[in-house]
Amino acid sequence: MPIRFERVHVESAAYYLPGEPVSNDQMDAYIAPLNRMSDRIKRRILAENGITTRHYAIDAEGNTVMGNAQLAAAAIRDCLARGGARLDEVSMLASGSSGGDALMPGFANMIQGELAAPPMETLSVHGICAAGVSAVQAAAQGIELGAHGRALAVASEMPSRLFKRSRFANRGYDADFDAHFLRWMLSDGAGALLLGDGSAGRATAQPGIRLKLKWVHQRAFSGDYPVCMQLGLSEDRKRAHLDYPSWADAEADGALSLRQDIRLLPHLFDIGIHEYAQLVRDGWLDPKTVDHFLCHYSSARFIPVVEDLMEKAGLVIPRERWYSNLAWRGNTGAASIFVMLAEFLQTRTLRPGERIFCYIPESGRFMAAYMLFEAEADEAAGANAESRPAAAPAAKPPAAMDSDDVLIAPPHDPDTGPDPLRPLLTELAAIWHDYRSRVWRTPVIRKLRERRFETSDYIGWMSHWIPQVREGSKWMREGAASLTGPYAELSALIDLHAGEEQNDFKILFQDYQRAGGTAPDIDALRRNPGGEALNAYLHGLAATQDPIGLLGAIYIIEGTGQRIVPQLLPLLRASLPLPPEAFRFLEYHGHNDEDHLARWLMAVQLVMEVGDPARSAARIVDTARRTAALYLMQFQHVMEAER
Questions:
Q1: What angle do helix axes 584-610 and 565-575 make, rounded to 10 degrees?
Q2: Contacts of 550 (CB under 8 A, 6+ apart)
Q3: For 317-342, what is each residue's pLDDT tens digit?
């Protein structure tokens, strides 16, 4: 029977993936072929699993760049930052993993040490894919029973160290299919959930939305089936690794090779769907009320298997309600459902009453795990809005402006984008949501939201921004000139865009003067340190050959103009005694950048048609991430003189 929860909510969710995305063509640099069978097996597996990029915490020489505890700690730090919580406010840490960096002590204790966390309760769950769900269940139970007000559940995996070619040297690089299989399936990553008791004033999973954990259900069928996925047993499963005279002997006999008996896998989904059907029959779940289905399938090959079994049971969840990021995040074992849920919450907008159903099958010795979440309206946020004194109608900005966070949509909704671009748009949306959230908390925006913004602040902000805007058309033209033959059409598009924006800085300077700015000419104004860093980065990138990553910079910059600026404009007008002519630039960008973003989408499609899509997407994402960090720095330095 599932464990029901009444007072457990997700305050925040985050994930961490090490290094740059590794495409299928780049895998051999990390997971090198072992023998003549390797390439044929690799092609077959990659053709079936649907994974296009993944992440490794080892480098091309096989050296460890980050350990598993470090991956988990990185996910936890981001999770706490997103939830506005401190580590000393958490009293329980539960971890789930197939293995940490050491055989002893427990993984949760190693993570606690990595974080230098204060004394707290810890629990280390050792398992495979469902281990993370066990960590969630344990943390949630602690909250439900009143033992903890806040608890962290984290799952982290780092199988890449097992897949290095050097691991097979003692076997003469001889490995059968079962030992080959998972080398092309699994990758590294971590995810974390901050759970709380729903106390007033706590962070919510999304602005205005509390995400309640309704129940967790787990059932193992290990007494019914043999071992399917294992590490530490001989090929015939009759001898454990500690039974050998030495580690070298165990490795030579294949007992330290991670193995999967794929012939048993069809049974896993069969028992999983039967258990799902039992949940429906017992009244724990109604498929018609499931708005989002997050299924941890290890390979795209199993999508029709799951769908067919659901159909046979008469309990289908329509495919349009399914969500998975396997294709671009990879299969990270126990961390997969955390990475999936965190990215879902960062890139999708929930409405009160919507339900998220998670299904996590584990192939180790057959286990099925399920979680159900429900979105609720944040009553505390509504009560706070009602208790605020009413403002004069003409001066009242949108209600959302008063919240600590505002859900400003990404420049392009992944759900409505072209199918081939959805993985890229989803990754960019995750960067966007982190960026806009941090921008919303910078001193300049906080002062504006708190009605403390003055004309002198606006003038100071413009004085930093004008020389930065002037450089925009310059680095774009420089980038267009650096594009070679295959990208001629893209070069023309960027050149057109630069031409449309080349006089924007003049409009902004006129706004500055109408607001009371006293600089006699534009050359007297200076970018702040953030603006200088952003300018240097973009000019440097534009000077390289085929700088297609600049599309990532344009995504952030144009998105700021089209998504964030329209939210700020009503506040500026309400706060400052200035004529409409002092806001022409902001008004212009709020309208015009919509057309620019449509052109951006066309440009990205051109890039994907010319080069390797995975590599092109990685360059765009990398530049977007760096541009977001530098543009954020520009916002942060606006009020520097006051600190």
A1: 170
A2: 475, 476, 479, 494, 538, 541, 542, 623
A3: 999 999 999 999 999 999 999 999 99
